[in-house]
Amino acid sequence: MADVLRIHASDNVAVALHPLYEGQRVECEGFALDIREEIPAGHKVALREIPANQKVMKYGFPIGYAKVDISAGAHVHVHNLHTLLSGELSYTWNPAHPHVKPRDPETFQGYMRSNGKVGIRNELWIIPTVGCVNDIARGLERDAQSLLGNGVDTVCAFTHPYGCSQMGDDQEHTRKILADLCVHPNAGGVLVLGLGCENSGVEEIRKRMGDFDESRVRFLVCQEVEDEHEVGMDILRSLAAAMQEDQRVPCPASKLVVGLKCGGSDGFSGITANPVIGGFSDKLVSQGGTTILTEVPEMFGAETILMNRCESQEVFEKTVHLINDFKGYFESHHQTIYENPSPGNKAGGISTLEDKALGCTQKSGFAPVADVLQYADQVKTTGLNLLSAPGNDLVAATALAAAGAQLILFSTGRGTPFACPVPTLKIASNSPLAARKKGWIDFNAGALLDSKESLDDLSENLLAKVLAVASGQQVCSEKHGFHDFAIFKDGVTL
After folding, report:
1. Which pTM does this prediction carry?
2. CATH class of the domain at 123-245
3. Which CATH class is domain 4-82?
C-alpha cells in the first residue's frame, strides 16, 4: 500500500494514507519525500516548499493559503493554513455541459402508493403537531408495538418541541415539514396527533398536504375527545388493518429518491466514501432516478463546481441564491461564515471549509444539476437536486426525508449511530472504522484504498446495496430501532 496520495496533478499537498513519522522517507509519483514531523492518517503533507501567502492546492483547487513558509515534508493543517473565503459573491455561469449516459433501469421491490409514488417501507407513523402531545405520542408508539407484523414494518412517533410559540419562517417550516412527512411514501399509515389550541394545529398541517389518501392519514385532536390514548389506539389499529393488504411489487429504479449527506468526515471522506456516493448518484440518475444534495454551508468554496453543472440559467440563478442566502443567514446572526470544520473534522485531517466542501461535493458525482429546492420543499424534478438546509446531521437528514427521499446515504470517517425518519445507510470512509463499528456501518468505501476494487466497482456495489435496502433489507440503524427527527429553527420563541 502506498504511503501518500496526491489527488490531482496540480496539488502541492498529498494525503497520508497511514501515520507518517519524522525522518521517514516516502515516495509519491516517482519522487522521494522526507517527512519532517509526525503526520496522522488522513492529514496533509506538503509535497514541496509552499511559501507564506501561497495557495495550498488539493483536489486541483485552492483550500486556503499558507500562513507561514511550509517546508516540503511538513504537516499542513490548521496551524499553518488559513481559508481564502469571504462573504457573499457574484458569480458567472460557465456551463460545463455535464452528461450522464442513460442506462436501462434496474428494479426493486417497493410499495406502490395511490398517488404513483413508491415507498421502500410500510411503516405506521405518529406525527405530533406540537411538542405538548409528545408524551401522548410516545405512549401510543409504545402500545402500538403490538401491531407490528402483518404488513406493518415499524411503528414510530416523530416527537419535536415545536408547533406553537413560533413566528414567521419557523412556524411555516414546522408546518411544511410535518405535512411533508404525512404524505411520505414510506408511511403506509399516519396518525396526525394535535392538541387543539396550538398555532400549527391539524387543520394547518392538512392544508399543506395537498392531495392525500384519506384512508391512510387520520387526524386526532386530543382536547376534543375524552380519552385520547384509547381513541388513538383505535385509529392505529384501523390503519394497521388497512396496511395488511399492502404488498411489495417490482418497481423501476427511476422511482427512487435518495438523499446524499455526510457527517463526522475525515481526510479520507473526499477520496473514498464521497466519490463512491457520487458514482452511485450518477448511476441512479442515468436510470431516471433522483438524488438530493444538501448541507449548503459545506458547499462554500466548491459552489462554482455545482453552478457550472446547472442545466439552465434559471437553475444557475437559483443556485447562486442558495449559496448567498445561506451566507446572509450567518451574517444576520453575526456569525463567522467559514468557521465550519468541527473538532472531529479537524482531528480527521480537514483544515478549512474549502477542504471540507471540495470533499463534500464529491457526493454529487458529475450529473447536471436539475433543480434547487428551498427548505421544506418537496422534490419535483428527476435527476440531481440541491436542497437548502444546514450542515447539522439530524436537521439536514430530516429535510432530505421531507423533500421525498425514501433513503439517505450518509458517509462518515469517524462514525455516528444517528438515523432519521427514513433508512439511513452509513458508509465508512476507512476500513478501520468499518471493522470497529460493525453495528453502525453498512458499507465500507475504505476498500477503495486497501483492495483492488475500483471506484466504479464500489459504486456499482453501493447501487446493488441500495436496491436491496429499497427491497426491504434493513440498515444498521433500523435494526437498533433508531428514528431521529429534527426541524430547522432560526427565529424567536414566544
Report:
1. 0.94
2. alpha beta
3. mainly beta
